Every structure is written in C-alpha cells, then in structure tokens.
C-alpha cells in the first residue's frame, strides 16, 4: 500500500485521528522520503459503552496501544466542527482532548486541521463528500478502501493532509510539543478521561 509523492525526505510516521464518541477513526501513515505507506487504518466502535466517561477511557487506552504498536512521531487530528447541538460539540471536544492527551503523554507532536482544510488538501474541494475523499485517497495511496473502512477515511485524510502541509509550519496550524505547550495554548480545555482491543492491521 504505497505510492511515490513528492514531499519531505525524512522518514517518520503519522497517526491520523478523526475523533468521535461513537465511532473514532484512526490511520497510521509511514513516510519514507517521497514514499507513503499505510500501515494500519480502521475504527474504534464505542456505541456499546453507555457511559460517556467509559468511552473516553477506551479512546485513551486504544490510541496508546496503537502508538505503542506503530511508534508514530506525530499526531494529525481533525478539529471539532461547530454545530448547533452544544452537548454533541462538548462530547466531541472531550474525545479530541483525550486523543490529544494520549498522544502527548507518549511524546508525539500534534497538529490540528479543520475538516474543510482536510477535504481541500485531498480533493481540492472543501465541501467534498466522504465518498469523494475515499476515492481520491485510493488514487493517491494505491489502496482499496472497503465500505467497512469508510468511517476511517477522515483519519487517513488528515494524515495525508498533514503530510502535504508539514513543510509549511507557518500556515496557521496549532502545534504542541508537550504538556507545557498544550496547556499554554489551551488554558480553558479540560481533559476528561477508558479502550477495547483496537482493530489491528500490523505492518508486514
């Protein structure tokens, strides 16, 4: 699962995350020079946990297991979108915060991307559908995205978006290299935080 794309020459791994409290998408992308290779992508299904704090604990533990398995250096995460349902936004924000906490405690650098920025980077259209994003990712990465992995396309998309944007650190992106940096830039963000065994697709 690889494709040559002009880009950074250094070798590193990116963990992409599309936060959610019912379904959380993740993807691990390996960068070797101009070569991109998908090591794993899938979802954590959290619907079976009725308690919201239980879901947050699962997100934290499963992401730490992914990080320990693949050892990515960077986390690219989709920023919460603004909606009319305040409670839904609050829960989504907590899920994102817990995902970021899991990455920060493991030493990863973090960058956030708005949903439209991700779609624009992948398809050239900030309003592209999930299916359009999936089709473009299949073309870029030379992989097949089955219907069961469609929910993971946003996570894969944010990882590719980060790869595309990483050479332009001054593009207005939020970057945190540790707890001190994170707290300084997020003084009002409360991290609340439990994880079932994640989908595994370890590199061959």
Shape assignment: globular
The overall pLDDT average reads 81
Write out the strand line-up for the largest beta sheet, numbering strands in chain order: 1-4-3-2-5-6-7
Q: How would you characterize the largest beta sheet?
A: 7 strands, mixed
Q: Rg from C-alpha positions?
A: 16 Å
DSSP strand content: 15-25%
Our count of domains comes out at 1
CATH H-level superfamily: Ribonuclease H-like superfamily/Ribonuclease H
CATH top level? Alpha Beta
Assembly form of the protein: single chain
Question: What structural class do helix, strand and pairing data support?
Answer: alpha/beta
What would CATH call the architecture?
A: 2-Layer Sandwich
CATH topology: Nucleotidyltransferase, domain 5
Short summary:
With 204 residues, the protein is α/β, with parallel strands linked by helices.
Please give a structural write-up.
Helices cover 39% and strands 22% of the residues. The protein has 204 residues and is an alpha/beta fold. It has one domain: Nucleotidyltransferase, domain 5, CATH 3.30.420.10. Strands 1-4-3-2-5-6-7 form a 7-stranded mixed sheet, with helices on both faces. The longest helix has 20 residues. The protein starts with a strand and ends in a 19-residue tail after the last helix. The N terminus and C terminus are likely disordered.
């Amino acid at each position: 699962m690889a494709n040559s794309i002009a880009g950074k020459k250094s070798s590193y791994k990116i963990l992409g995350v599309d936060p959610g409290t019912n379904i959380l998408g993740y993807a691990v992308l390996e960068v070797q020079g101009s070569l991109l290779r998908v090591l794993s992508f899938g979802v954590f299904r959290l619907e079976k946990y009725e308690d919201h704090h239980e879901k947050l604990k699962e997100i934290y533990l499963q992401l730490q297991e992914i990080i320990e398995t693949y050892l990515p250096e960077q986390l690219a995460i989709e920023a919460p979108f603004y909606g009319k349902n305040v409670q839904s936004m609050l829960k989504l924000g907590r899920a994102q915060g817990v995902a970021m906490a899991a990455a920060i405690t493991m030493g990863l650098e973090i960058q956030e991307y708005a949903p439209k920025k991700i779609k624009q980077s992948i398809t050239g259209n900030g309003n592209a559908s999930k299916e359009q994003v999936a089709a473009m990712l299949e073309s870029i990465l030379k992989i097949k995205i089955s219907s069961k992995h469609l929910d993971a396309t946003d996570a894969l998309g944010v990882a590719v978006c980060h790869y595309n944007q990483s050479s332009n650190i001054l593009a207005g992106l939020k970057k945190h290299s540790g707890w001190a940096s994170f707290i300084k830039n997020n003084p009002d963000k409360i991290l609340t935080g439990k994880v079932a065994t994640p989908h595994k697709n370890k590199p061959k």
